[in-house]
């Protein structure tokens, strides 16, 4: 089977549970983007994903991309599909109208990219950085750079890369050695090498805009000495810039996306933003990318669950023990308790993740465009805290949950014919790129919770509590978890004063505990929404969350509490 976007489920969460139209109504920018228009956009996006992108997924894995003499040929069908994608206007969905975009809410783009990643992760890597590159150039680029490049970046006619990593400098960007030398005409000459560059070379577009971190002459050591430059593959007159692809990596997965080793030899580049402020400009791009990666995780997990569910409904083995529900024959494995637990658990993560990611997408727009400053600040706090949680928790679940879905197939899952093993391989990298999940956990605890004594986190907890009053036993469970997490947070903040290494050791457990609280909150909202009450489609994964997922919360807190005690 090929992936089918869950358009009805998405619309239910977005409009029935979250009331997206109501949340966006105060924003003048979206006055014309009512619920009917948003639903229509999602329905058309689902058609494009299912009919154009999803059927290319197997070809993306085998034969994958091919490299010869500095050129990359993408898998069969990839280039025509991409031309159809940008010509239909999909890259410009949420970009500003003054830049040639459609000015629609970001959350619609988020749902689109969730579906694209689920349908064909390798293909989706090509346009995956477009929005972040657009934000970076729109916020920090000079008027000259915007005039030359922004329109074709918004349309998707040209693609972009993010060139950070060097062989000796992965997460520690302060070690970057690539140099940029100023020229009399205001340009720079860029020299150095970068690795792990997604889409560094390909045949999808004529031009590729490389956003490159480099060090100017006399710049100080470390991250404060880095600047950001735009280095195009093709120069204004159409000649080839001195940008070279030396190879593409042979990878565990994502064979449809060329991961390139790039070399810059006196390549012409132009400064984006101020000298020495490269990371500030780049992080505009990275933060947008991290929410995209969280949605990749949700989409890939749904793709794996869809395959496993379809297989379980046609695979006949031993009889189901005990009483059964439903009309399936007694020997379909979908009826076995172990299979039901596995599939319902993945659905609990998928639907809860959608709610959290979509709400964060709404908060992104609110933080930028809402007329009330206090509401904008509240939205900024939400996005700052939830982005690392979503990126880490849902990419982790994508890989481990996809592996569990492979288990449904037994030995058939381990061979290529069924396609489930590709999802396991493709999903693994999402735990690494755009900041490893360990770095996301450190970002949450060390950089966001500890510095203000947990003040911003407590404000977010109050938002959650407002939705949990009088919500029954499930709501009381989440309220109890919130109270316990606050107590543990206070103890951790106090212990870190004399044990500065402690937070780094338990950051992963802390992020996971926060994620479980958020999931519990999400499912209280879902299960108490008209349309979900009494509906097995929504109640079964909600019950699976309470029985099989949330008990992990006690274990994570116990780990943190034991580590605090060891400091005494």
Description of the molecule:
This protein has 568 residues and is an alpha+beta fold. Among the domains are: 7-140, Acyl-CoA dehydrogenase/oxidase, N-terminal domain (Butyryl-Coa Dehydrogenase, subunit A, domain 1), CATH 1.10.540; 158-281, Butyryl-CoA Dehydrogenase, subunit A, domain 2, CATH 2.40.110.20; 436-568, no CATH class. It is built from 19 helices and nine strands. Strands 3, 4, 5, 6, 7, 8 and 9 form a seven-stranded mixed β-sheet that branches. The chain has a two-stranded antiparallel sheet with strand order 1-2. The chain is globular, with a radius of gyration of 24 Å. The mean pLDDT is 94.
Keywords:
568 residues; Butyryl-Coa Dehydrogenase, subunit A, domain 1; 7-stranded mixed β-sheet; two-stranded antiparallel sheet; Butyryl-CoA Dehydrogenase, subunit A, domain 2; globular; alpha+beta
What would you say about this model in short?
The chain has 568 residues and is of the alpha+beta class. It is built from 19 helices and nine strands. Strands 3, 4, 5, 6, 7, 8 and 9 form a seven-stranded mixed β-sheet that branches. A two-stranded antiparallel sheet has the order 1-2.
* Overall geometric form: globular
Distance between the termini: 56 Å
Spans with pLDDT under 50 lasting ≥5 residues? Answer: none
Q: How many distinct helices?
A: 19
* Run of helices and strands: HHHHEEHHHHHEEEEEEEHHHHHHHHHH
What is the radius of gyration?
24 Å
CATH domain fold name of the domain at 7-140: Butyryl-Coa Dehydrogenase, subunit A, domain 1
Backbone structural class = alpha+beta
What would the average pLDDT be, to the nearest integer?
A: 94
Could you give me the name of the CATH homologous superfamily of the domain at 7-140?
Acyl-CoA dehydrogenase/oxidase, N-terminal domain
Oligomeric state, counting identical vs distinct chains: single chain
